[in-house]
C-alpha cells in the first residue's frame, strides 16, 4: 500500500493532462458548422459562426501514436473576430506551421514549391491533415487546466522525422487557393460543447 486509506493528501493527482511540451503526431478533424461565406473562400459547410459573430473551424485533434494515442485535444481555428485581427494573426502562424509539418517543408524554405505547399484550395485540405504538434497546457473559461495545441513541429526540428514516421511529399492545391485562414489555439469553448476550451476575449 502506497498510502493510508484515511489520508489522501499524498495520492496522485488525476489531472489527466498530456505533459506540457510533448511532441505527438496528430490528425485534425473539422466538425462542420454549416456556415459559408464564398466571398472569403469559406465553403463546404466547415465553418461555424458563434453568437458573438466570430467565425471559426471547430477542430478536433486526435493523437495518433505513442502513450497518448487516441487522446483528443479540441481547438477553435479562428477565421474572423469582430474585435480585431489578433485571433487571425495568431492563427495564420499556426496554420503555416501545420502545413509545413504535414507537407515536409522547412519553415525557411521560400522556393516556389514550398510556397505552393503552404496554400490550400479549401477547408477540405485541412480536414484530416496529419502533422507533428507541440502540446501545451492552458486554462479554460472555468480556470481549469486543459491541453492546447499552439504550434506545429516542422522538419527543422531534430525529432520531426522520428515522430512523423515518413518524410511527407509537398502537396500543391488542385483548386485556386482560398485566402490563408487563421487558427486559434487559445483557451476557448463553443457555446454548445461544454468540454471545449473557452472563447478568447477578442473573439467576442
UniProtKB/TrEMBL annotation:
Residues 185-196 have a biased composition (Low complexity). Residues 185-204 are annotated as: Disordered. This is Uncharacterized protein. It comes from Pseudoruegeria aquimaris. The lineage of its organism: Bacteria, Pseudomonadati, Pseudomonadota, Alphaproteobacteria, Rhodobacterales.
Amino acid at each position: 500500500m502506497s498510502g493510508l486509506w484515511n489520508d489522501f493528501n499524498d495520492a496522485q493527482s488525476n489531472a489527466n493532462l498530456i505533459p506540457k511540451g510533448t511532441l505527438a503526431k496528430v490528425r485534425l478533424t473539422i466538425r462542420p458548422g454549416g456556415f459559408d461565406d464564398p466571398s472569403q473562400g469559406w465553403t463546404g459547410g466547415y465553418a461555424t459562426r458563434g453568437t458573438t459573430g466570430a467565425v471559426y473551424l471547430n477542430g478536433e485533434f486526435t493523437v495518433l501514436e505513442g502513450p497518448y494515442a487516441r487522446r483528443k485535444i479540441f481547438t477553435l481555428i479562428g477565421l474572423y473576430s469582430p474585435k480585431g485581427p489578433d485571433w487571425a494573426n495568431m492563427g495564420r502562424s499556426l496554420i503555416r506551421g501545420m502545413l509545413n509539418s504535414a507537407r515536409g517543408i522547412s519553415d525557411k524554405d521560400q522556393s516556389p514549391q514550398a510556397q505552393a505547399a503552404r496554400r490550400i484550395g479549401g477547408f477540405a485540405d485541412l480536414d484530416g491533415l496529419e502533422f507533428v504538434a507541440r502540446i501545451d497546457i492552458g486554462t479554460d473559461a472555468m480556470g481549469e487546466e486543459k491541453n492546447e495545441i499552439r504550434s506545429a513541429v516542422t522538419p527543422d526540428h531534430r525529432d520531426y522525422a522520428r515522430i512523423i514516421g515518413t518524410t511527407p511529399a509537398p502537396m500543391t492545391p488542385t483548386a485556386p487557393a482560398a485566402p490563408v485562414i487563421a487558427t486559434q489555439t487559445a483557451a476557448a469553448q463553443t457555446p454548445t460543447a461544454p468540454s471545449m476550451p473557452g472563447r478568447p476575449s477578442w473573439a467576442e
